[in-house]
Design brief:
It contains 17 helices and 20 strands. By secondary structure, it is of the alpha/beta class. The longest helix is centred in the middle third of the chain and has 23 residues.
Length: 587
């Protein structure tokens, strides 16, 4: 009986394990024509490898640099899902998961963050749900809760900072929604540096300096930190210059300070000039970090200070030679305390936080044109269930870079649901679209549920780059109706118009008054304020299409025959009337 009982228990356990396995579906980010990997340059070129550098650099780069190319520092897997449990299993290049001056999680673990529908980012803890075996590492996030019920969230999975990944799969509950997201095609911030930049030594990958910067500024960031190997060799700048960057950050002094002063100056100057020959993007040179143990170890401080003096001289000479858009991060900008490092060479979580804050402050100075609006801070969103917001953002950038559009339509779902490209699953005015635009090249930059702050984010993140349209139409504000005052909404639209004018000065800008909608009586007040606030000129006009959508009796009430049942979105008739009038402005 005892033997029979043991056998039955074993069979039950096997059945339970089989059921569990059947309830999980595993997804591979390397499936598809282009890897679903973010945080890398040369993404498509590297195929199914998780490396940071393509093979063609092997003979060009220093051996120590090349030996670290497989470490996945700064590499991210993005996806959306509504699964209650997220599981990750992966194989590391090294089965030595632990490090002496860093945690095992930082060296070999993965780290998960999620976004709520309004774009707020939150860390997700495993609460020790992990298992590191000889050939497979596993981490799990259980009992996830979502603000938007069935739609789930957008996730960012940060890969190990000091180990490589041979293969990886994301597991979700059977029957749940899941979709990988491609890397944004917008220009990245490229950071070249030492082990500090690679990711030594916060407690976990998400707390690495470049990952904090990426998360808070939401620009793509390329981590080219190489432990012990950042010495500003010419080949490194040849490599960096291949990347069409939004900004370059050169933070090599923690490894370069031992070079001769003249060599530091020479390498820094020649490197900057290599970058400047290919790009006008801002470049930042960074001093070596402060030495918080300098009271008792003055000799170390003296070595670092000598290197910093040489770097400053290189910066001054470059400026004197007329090099513009050049910035400098001094050690005093990084406010280290004595508790902010692990062993005196690498920052802990406190130090990485301070380091990232210094970066962020200087990057905002470098990219002053992206200064956040005080009332409408730029943010993403994921409120609409009929499309993926970030995926549409990527599609718009690609379209505007490849089709040379004549017309851009910027807006929310009222624009999104009209038709055109990128294609949306909801199309309420396809025939009217064809009548209005014919064969003209038009990008539909309408995003369902967008508010003014979301359009700010989209413009700051590349949607107006790579094209020179003749006309731009802006229709936004109705989704801010219950969030902001009419005065704020009108001013926000005017601020957007000013931003668009700076980014696309050659285009005719047509700011459309907010369309009427059922139950939105304050729309008229918003439009009155727009008339007062918007600065019009030969290139900017305020367009009133209200009469297309209201009853002819002068009541100002919407004509229900021009709308969907919601009284907000036009139908085919409404779009036809709108298109007929708008077409007159697009000659």
């Amino acid at each position: 009986m005892k033997t029979k009982h043991i056998i039955l228990m074993a069979l039950a356990l096997m059945a339970s394990m089989t059921t569990t396995a059947q309830q999980v579906k595993w997804m591979n980010p390397m499936d598809g024509d282009e890897p679903y990997i973010s945080g890398r340059a040369w993404n498509k070129e590297m195929g199914r490898a998780y490396d940071r550098l393509p093979d063609r650099f092997e003979k060009l780069l220093p051996k120590n640099v090349w030996s670290l190319k497989a470490h996945t520092a700064g590499v991210i897997v993005r996806f959306v899902s509504n699964s209650k449990t997220i599981r990750v299993r992966y194989g590391c290049l090294s089965n030595n998961y632990n490090g002496f001056n860093m945690t095992g999680i930082d060296k070999s673990g993965v780290d998960l963050y999620g976004k709520n529908p309004d774009g707020d980012i939150h860390w997700i803890a495993t609460h020790m749900s992990w298992k590191m075996q000889a050939d497979t590492a596993r981490m799990e996030w259980q009992n996830l809760t979502y603000a938007n019920k069935g739609r789930g969230a957008e996730f960012a999975l940060y890969l190990p900072n000091y180990n490589g990944v041979k293969w990886l799969e994301v597991g979700v509950d059977e029957g749940s929604h899941f979709q990988f997201l491609h890397q944004s095609p917008e220009r990245p911030i490229v950071v070249y540096g030492s082990s500090i930049i690679q990711g030594a030594s916060p407690s976990r990958p998400g707390m690495a300096i470049t990952n904090i910067v990426e998360r808070e500024l939401e620009y793509p960031v390329i981590n080219l930190g190489f432990s012990g190997s950042a010495r500003m060799e010419p080949a490194m700048f040849d490599m960096l210059s291949e990347i069409d960057a939004r900004a370059y950050i050169i933070d090599a002094m923690p490894n370069s300070f031992n070079l001769q002063d003249t060599e530091i100056i020479k390498r820094a100057k020649e490197g900057v000039m290599k970058l400047r020959a290919k790009s006008l993007a801002p470049i930042m040179l960074c001093e070596c970090h402060p030495t918080p143990d300098s009271v008792m170890r003055a000799n170390i401080k003296a070595k670092y200070d000598r290197g910093n003096v040489a770097l400053r001289r290189a910066y001054d000479e470059l400026r004197a030679a007329g090099v513009t858009n050049l910035y400098y991060l001094s050690k005093s900008d990084i406010r280290f305390g004595e508790d902010y490092m692990v062993e005196g060479s690498h920052p802990n979580d406190l130090g990485c936080r301070v380091y990232a804050d210094a970066y962020e402050k200087k990057i905002r100075e470098m990219l002053a044109e992206d200064k956040p609006n005080s009332v409408f801070p730029p943010v993403t969103q994921r409120r609409d269930g009929c499309y993926e917001w970030r995926e549409r953002h990527n599609q718009v950038i690609r379209l505007n870079h490849t089709t040379n559009p004549e017309i851009l339509l910027i807006g929310n779902s009222i624009t999104n649901f009209w038709g055109g490209n990128p294609v949306c699953s909801v199309n309420n005015g396809g025939a009217a679209w064809g009548k209005t635009f014919g064969k003209r090249r038009v990008t539909n930059m309408g995003f369902g549920w967008d508010r003014i702050e979301n359009v700010f984010w989209r413009i700051y993140h590349g949607e107006l780059e790579g094209c020179k349209p003749k006309h731009i139409c802006l229709l936004i504000g109705i989704n801010n109706y219950y969030v902001n005052t009419p005065e704020q909404i009108a001013q926000g639209i005017c601020d957007l118009a000013q931003l668009i004018r700076k980014r696309q000065p050659q285009a005719q800008l047509h700011v459309l008054k907010v369309y009427p909608a059922r139950g939105r009586d304050k729309v008229a007040r918003i439009n009155e304020l727009l008339e007062q606030k918007l600065k019009t000129d030969a290139k900017t006009e305020l367009v009133d299409l209200t009469q297309c959508l209201v009853l002819p009796d002068g009541s100002g009430k919407i004509d229900p025959t021009c709308f969907q049942k919601d009284g907000l979105h036009p139908n085919e008739k409404g779009y036809t009337l709108l298109g007929k009038q708008l077409k007159k402005h697009l000659k």
